[in-house]
Amino acid sequence: MSQGRKERHKGGLPPDAEAGIDFSPLDPTQDRDRFQRFVREMGAAAREAFSHRRPLPRLGDIILHWKRPIFAASGLLLLWSLLIFAIVDRPVVRQSMDEALGIPAPWARWSQAQEKPTASEILFGNEMPGDERTPWLEERR
To answer: Using CA atoms, how far apart are residues 43 and 41, in angstroms rounded to an integer?
Structure first.
């Protein structure tokens, strides 16, 4: 570096010059009346600028705006499902409520007949010892 120049630091000023700077002319509150007038003018300008903005939509407005696309999509979904039901031929399966709930057939018969089952019927249900479907019951004897 040359001899005539002082070394510059991050702030752009030499370290000894920072303490001698008077920042009081930059203080906006030095003249209170001028500062209050400035704040009022800024508030009025901001209110005027914000008054021209469109208000935020409410939830009801958003739903009403999307009403036609929602109805169109649900109508297409309805037509699609009716078309599928018309094309696909599924046999109608008649079931009792017990079968639909997955209740075993012996239990369903007992509940409908209002008879009390025997102890062996409770333990084995339709699978009685000697039945070909239950060879494991014979092994226990």
So the answer is: 5
Residue whose token pair is 């914000």? 50
Angle ∠(132,115,141) on CA atoms, nearest 5: 30
What's the pLDDT score for residue 2? 47
Instruction: Chunk the chain into consecutive blocks of 10 residues (it has 141) and report each block's average pLDDT, rounded to whole numbers.
Output: 51 61 79 90 90 84 89 96 87 77 75 74 62 52 47
Contacts of 46 (CB under 8 A, 6+ apart): none
Please give the Cα distance from 141 to 138 (Å, whole number). Answer: 6
pTM here is 0.30
Distances from the Cα of 12 to the Cα of 7, 15, 17, 18, 36, angstroms: 9, 9, 10, 10, 33
What does the buried/exposed string (b/e) look like for 106-121 if buried means 16 or more CB atoms within 10 Å of the residue's CB?
Answer: eeeebeeeeeeeeeeb
Residue 38 domain boundaries: 25-51
**pLDDT at res. 79:** 96
What is the phi-psi region of residue 41: left when phi exceeds 0, alpha when psi lies from -120 to 50, beta otherwise? Answer: alpha
Report if residue 33 sits inside a domain. Answer: yes
Total domains, the chain: 1
